[in-house]
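User: I'm putting together notes for a lab meeting next week and I want to include a structural view of one of the chains we've been expressing. I don't have a solved structure, so I'd like a prediction I can at least talk through. The sequence is below, exactly as it appears in our construct file.
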Amino acid sequence: MHNTYHALQTKVGVIRGRDAIYMDEYVYNCQSRELTVRGEFNYNQFSQLEEEGEAFIPFVWTFHNVLYVESTELDFYSQERLIEASFGLIQPSARLEAMREEGNTKLTEEHRHFVIATYDEVIEVIASMDYTLLIP
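Assistant: Thanks for the context. Below is the predicted structure for the 136-residue chain, given as structure tokens.
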């Protein structure tokens, strides 16, 4: 199966460029099965933000029903050439398909294989489609 990357639209538009997302931390809570990513968006990378102001905008991004998470330093991420935006889906996903073949009941039709490419790290996460992106 050939993995294909698809950029995703967010409330700030399509996020593109290595300088678009600066991650401060990510925390995985195994009891709630949530992955929370905190950091800043580089305002100059977006066209759909309505308000002008600071060059960097803080965010809190939460993924729900997480079944898989992996973080790799950007320079060692072997699939970097496939990434066309800083946030997207791998679809079809060989990893997600392998999980489906195992028949685990925790995996639902709502689960997707997301990729977040930050300035320093690439995070792959398999979680439900209903992620939350807060911009305080």
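A couple of points you could mention at the meeting. Residues 5-134 form one domain. The mean pLDDT is 87.

User: Perfect, that's what I needed.
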